[in-house]
TrEMBL record:
Span of domain Kinesin motor: 17-355
Signal peptide start-end: none
Organism: Coccomyxa subellipsoidea (strain C-169) (Green microalga)
Protein name: Kinesin-like protein
Pfam families: Kinesin (PF00225)
Entries under PROSITE patterns matching the protein: KINESIN_MOTOR_1, KINESIN_MOTOR_2
One GO-annotated biological process of the protein: microtubule-based movement
Annotated residues for binding of ATP: G104, Q105, T106, G107, S108, G109, K110, T111
GO molecular-function terms, A-Z: ATP binding; microtubule binding; microtubule motor activity
InterPro entries: Kinesin-like_fam, Kinesin_motor_CS, Kinesin_motor_dom, Kinesin_motor_dom_sf, P-loop_NTPase
Entry GO terms, CC: microtubule
Coiled-coil blocks: none
Source taxon at top rank: Eukaryota
Length: 395
């Protein structure tokens, strides 16, 4: 069928696997055991095999992992944005949902990748760059009117909080209103108490990002001076209507900084930080269970996917096996002491890459147009009735 004759009802969902990218964080003494085989998008870990504890012989165990693309320790923020996020941002303007999530052990560079570093302008991460590209593209598309809204959700110790809540500065965390996640009979997820703030300009959206970032729960841990102790989901909601068209295209772009997994025995943490790490590890375990269940259900009758086990997997339900183009960035630390965790992150990414999402363009009749049409129909009927009554009276 020619493109011009296609109606939106005919659209066949596009099957699209989750794309996986590897990023290696620069460290002062990079491990020689990690080798990037560039042209094959491949990373190899040659790990010395231990005979006994502390005794190392010459034998090495090799672990190979393939990614859609890899970013070495010298890759810039711009290269990461262009390689990972640019297409998703542009597609969101056409009504396609997107999610980018960063996964990896604590201190591996997830927040640096998603939000950026505070030191230099060039260190801006994916969120500020996505905002800039989005508003730049909106300004170029003069035939379409867009509305942008922003929300910023924090999941801390399995409870949801609104990072854009004005009360955050004056109240204790336990006194703040919690976010509730509700699921309707069509398995559509709704959030209660999460504010959606209108952003008309790039500056508006950046201010909201800044407000949310200052509200994030951060602690100093042995692995990271400023460790995010929560999962954070920054969402840009887009609504676009082309001049003269009666349909609107809606999309959501989720930019997700997951809290980092932590080997609690290795880092010897205790007290509050230990409690937080346990919650973080548990929710990452639930994420892994969802990925394993999705992987098992591929090509089979629908299996139960345990999304509801944690708030994070409930919120990311559409991104994992649903109507969304999803990208995962596996962040690893380039040091020898972290090889085990880095391999484990790569292994998890290989599983994620097998998950297939069904992506459709979200097009619906514009509610304003529906109301306008109904009003017009009402007027026509009234006129018809008046006309008929007159005809009866004069007959
Ligand atoms: N590519 C990079 N270039 C320069 N510095 C980086 C890079 N990646 C990370 N860093 C620095 O390393 C430190 C740890 O990074 P970051 O806080 O992003 O880790 P994280 O994975 O988010 O950790 P956590 O899970 O504990 O929050 C920060 O000081 C950050 O600025």
């Amino acid at each position: 069928m020619p493109e011009s004759e296609k109606s939106d009802d005919d659209e066949v969902p596009d099957k699209s696997n989750i794309q996986i990218y590897l990023r290696i964080r620069p460290v002062s003494e990079p491990s020689e055991c990690i080798q990037i085989v560039d042209d094959e998008n491949h990373v190899r870990f040659d790990v010395p095999r231990k005979l006994n504890q502390g005794l190392v012989n010459n034998q090495k165990e090799a672990h190979h992992f393939t990614f859609n693309s890899l970013f070495s320790a010298s890759s810039t923020q711009e290269e990461v944005f262009d390689g990972v996020a640019r297409d998703l941002v542009l597609q969101s303007l056409d009504g396609i949902n997107g999610t980018i999530f960063a996964y990896g052990q604590t201190g591996s560079g997830k927040t640096f990748t998603i939000t950026g570093g505070p030191q230099r302008y060039a260190d801006r991460g994916i969120i500020p760059r996505a905002i800039a590209l989005m508003f730049h593209s909106i300004a170029e598309r003069t035939d379409t009117e867009y509305k942008v809204h922003v929300s910023y959700l924090e999941i801390f110790n399995e409870a949801g909080y609104d990072l854009l809540d004005q009360e955050r500065e004056v109240r204790l965390l336990e006194d703040l209103q919690r976010i509730h996640i509700l699921e309707d009979e069509d398995a559509v997820i709704h959030t209660r108490n999460l504010s959606m703030r209108r952003a008309d300009t790039e500056e508006d959206a950046l201010n909201l990002l800044f407000l949310g970032d200052t509200n994030r729960t951060i602690s100093e841990t042995p692995m990271n001076m400023a460790s995010s102790r929560s999962h954070c989901v920054f969402t840009l909601y887009l609504e676009g209507r082309k001049t003269g068209e009666e349909v609107v295209r809606r999309s959501k772009l989720n930019l997700v900084d997951l809290a980092g997994s932590e080997r609690v025995a290795k880092t010897q943490i205790n007290g509050t930080i230990l409690k937080e790490a346990k919650y973080i590890n548990l929710s990452l375990h639930y994420l892994e269970q969802v990925i394993i269940a999705l992987q098992r259900s591929m090509g089979q009758a629908r299996l139960h996917i345990p999304y509801r086990n944690s708030m994070m997997t409930t919120v990311l339900r559409d991104s994992l096996g649903g109507n969304c183009r999803t990208v995962m960035i596996a962040n690893i630390n380039g040091a020898s002491a972290q090889l085990e965790e880095s391999i484990s992150t790569c292994r998890f990414a290989q599983r994620v890459a097998m998950i297939c999402n069904s992506v459709t363009t979200n097009v619906e009749l514009d509610p304003d147009t529906i109301i306008r049409n109904l009003r017009q129909e009402n007027e026509n009927l009234k006129y018809q009735i008046r006309h008929d009554l007159k005809s009866i009276a004069t007959a």
